[in-house]
Amino acid sequence: MGALARQYKPHDLLPVSNYDSGLNTTRIMKILLVGLGGMAGSMLRYAVSMALLPWCLRVGFPVGTLTVNVAGGLLIGILAGLCREQVWFYLLAIGFCGGFTTFSAFSLEVVEMFRAGNVAGGALYIISSLVMSVAAVIGGIYIATKLR
After folding, report:
1. pLDDT tens string 70-91
2. Residue 117 has what DSSP assignment?
3. Is the pTM of this model over 0.85?
4. Which of 8, 63, 74, 87 falls between 20 and 30 A from 19, CA-CA?
């Protein structure tokens, strides 16, 4: 596992130049920024999905979801390159992109693993994320049917 885990820290997506696990005014401000960005991202995701719904129904493919995932990936990549150590990263990358699409964070983590030379780890992350997420949805549906 050592080769797969190398060069990846649990908080790689967060600007951690002065990381402190305590709750203080700065941390509370960052939490609020993430929440505000997440709210805006979620609202836009819903708006885009609804706008593209007629096309999705016509072609039988989730074009809305694909659109927000690709757009979110592009945006989080731009933000990671431009403002990773700035307060805007919390509002826009972690908050907005997180609310707009969680796929953007996953995509950035995969790219960072590849850039760090951890190709096997990145590939394992892609495969395990897709397989485990789909399996979790199937499991959740199964549990829900048993709870009815």
Report:
1. 999 899 989 988 887 788 999 9
2. T
3. no
4. 74
